[in-house]
Amino acid sequence: MGWERGYVMRVLVIGSGYLGGAVAGRLRAGGVDAVVCSRRRPGAASAGGAPWRELDVRDGRACRELVAELAPEGVVVVHGPSDITWCEANPELAREAHAGGARNIADAVEGRHVVLISTDNVFDGTRASSGESDPVSPANAYGAAKLAAERTFLERGSALALRVSLVHGWDPDGLRPNFATTCVRALRDGRELDVPEDHWNTPVHVDDVSAWVVALMGARRTGVLHLGGPDRLSRLEWARRIADAQGLDAGLLRPVRRADSAYACRPENACLHSERAALLPELAGLAPEGVDVSARRLPQEG
């Protein structure tokens, strides 16, 4: 994979949310010296057990100083804000964090290998699913900000933009738990949950994303790559499968139209497929799992 050959000995993970912590944890499990940085101190679990350093990516001087001090061989960029609804209401702040932050990080890393976690929201959702060669057309302010960040990294150095579909897993302590966690907790509490019947996704488990990030960084892949799960299904169908796997009451799920829900600013088809992944040897054996397997892996309590 590359670690044994000494390609990357220290990795800086910029972002300490659910996915950033999972990436840091997998890097550390593989013997890599991973350091997490973010604006706010995360809980131990959120940092994946890695040491934490404070960093606001909007501060170019702080970015340069931290990279100079830590001297990482590689950088994973997975910072927020990732609340798409919030970004739509605050487009300038979203752009400052993602596009502006990308400029500051790119200046600081000076050609070091970067893996940027990007999004399916760089597409407008008019296709059933989007591959790497499909033209981009951001669906919302979040997608536009992430696309600008992609272009900054790809133009300035050795970088990979890994666009991921809806990331999920068990995250009960997160500031904004992902859909799978939200669904399970609502149904366990006996609460009704509004779920769009016309919002299509290819959900991918957080463990699969972190495994790909580590493998791709070890191989120093560059360019654009997509990672979506094997199931293309509506959010409502996904919620029903979660309920079935957990033995919960699917009757509490209330079908709604995407346009009338909290998902109104998301693309209708938030779905990704890859034209490249099967050609990359480091990804052999890392096929992402389906939603039924993931749903059965969710804890039965908690």
UniProtKB/TrEMBL annotation:
Top-rank taxon, per record: Bacteria
Pfam families named in the record: RmlD_sub_bind
Record-annotated RmlD-like substrate binding domain positions: 9-277
InterPro entries cross-referenced by the UniProt entry: NAD(P)-bd_dom_sf, RmlD-like-bd
Protein name (record): dTDP-4-dehydrorhamnose reductase
